[in-house]
Amino acid sequence: MQVRSAGVSQLVGRRRTGLGQYGLAESGPVDWWMAEAVDSLLGGRTDANRWWIETGPSPFKIQVKSSTIVAVGGAQRTVQLGDWIVPASGGGLLAKCIVQNGDVIELGFAKSGTYSYLAFHSDLHLNPVLGSYSASMTGDFPGLLGRRLRDGDVIPVQEVDEDLLSQHRTKKFANMIEISLRTNPLLAEPLYFLPGPEYDVISRDLGMENARDWYFRITPHWDRHGLRMEWLSPDEAKVTMDVVELSHSSPTISGLIQWPRKGQPILLGPDRPTVGGYPRFGVMMSHEMAGISLRNIGTTIWLRKVSREEASAVYPIKMMVRQNWLKLWKWFNT
Fold first, then answer.
1. Which of 24, 84, 137, 314 is deepest in the core (most CB within 10 A)?
2. In Å, how far from its chain's centre is CA 163?
3. 101 with 64: CB under 8 angstroms?
4. What is the pLDDT of residues 92-107, one digit of tens each?
């Protein structure tokens, strides 16, 4: 298949873990839950050979050179899968169909949400590095030449068996937001985070030592390294900190919220630096990162500080909801 219009996109595979000590972040999808949902439509892909094309909000176009099965999900946008146009109405989408040799897959500009994922039932003719196809901006590998996709890039894939194609002849489409609202009673609740080592100092310095709920606005400065957020401070709170500093660097993880002394908080992503020196405000619980691709620039994120005991109590409930989503999509696929 050949990329016709790359926008801001790259190949991603499963996350690499345990390599932070060597300066290598885990990479993988920004929104692992959305990537899993798209993958569930295909079925039959093993963990080792899973890969996606992750696209930002700008348009993306790719032409296939052999018949395959494609699934797409994520931000609300008009999607053309061969001769089938999937409308962008009512929220994020989830769709799959067969595309033939020469067909074009086109994703329009995202009207709502940020990231989308394309998955194909075709194995890559590329060798994974350290167990993943993900491009690593810090390690300069692998993906496609260790970089973002560009116009004209050719992605080498294997042809799909005709028997497998015959099992997926029906086009499928679902409004993902509608499914989410019906299956997730927690959708409108706050996102939980655990306080970081410098939380007490930061909150006290900002005059927010008694606060449990924090509100942030998503800014346009959002990429795979991290998301910069604008703090929506109450009238009585201070806007900047005076005294919080770190005298040394410390390890980072995806979901860590750093708060520079004079700057905007940063929610770190999968391609972040593995060490950092900014004060650590908190850590988003892993399941709270699910569905982040559907959030819009300019919208508000509601974060709530919880203790480890509270986190332990709510984690099984929210994970059960996420699993119910995936079960529903797998049923939708049958």
1. 137
2. 32
3. yes
4. 667 778 888 899 999 9
- For residue 106, the cross-strand partners are 61, 80
Structure tokens at 262: 């004079």
The whole-model pTM stands at: 0.85
Domain borders along the chain are 2-182+327-333, 191-311
Summarize pLDDT for 86-142 with one digit per residue, the tens. 776 545 667 778 888 899 999 999 887 888 999 998 888 888 888 788 877 666 565
Nearest to 212 by CA among 146, 304, 332, 145: 304
**How do residues 155-192 score in pLDDT, each as one tens digit?**
988 888 777 777 665 555 554 444 444 434 344 578 88
Which of 2.60.40.10, 2.40.100.10, 3.40.50.1220, 3.40.190.10 is the CATH number of 191-311?
Answer: 2.40.100.10
Q: What phi, psi does 61 have (nearest 5°)?
A: -145, 135
CA triple 94-99-103, angle to 5 deg: 115
Nearest alpha-carbon partner for 196 in 256, 242, 245, 250: 256
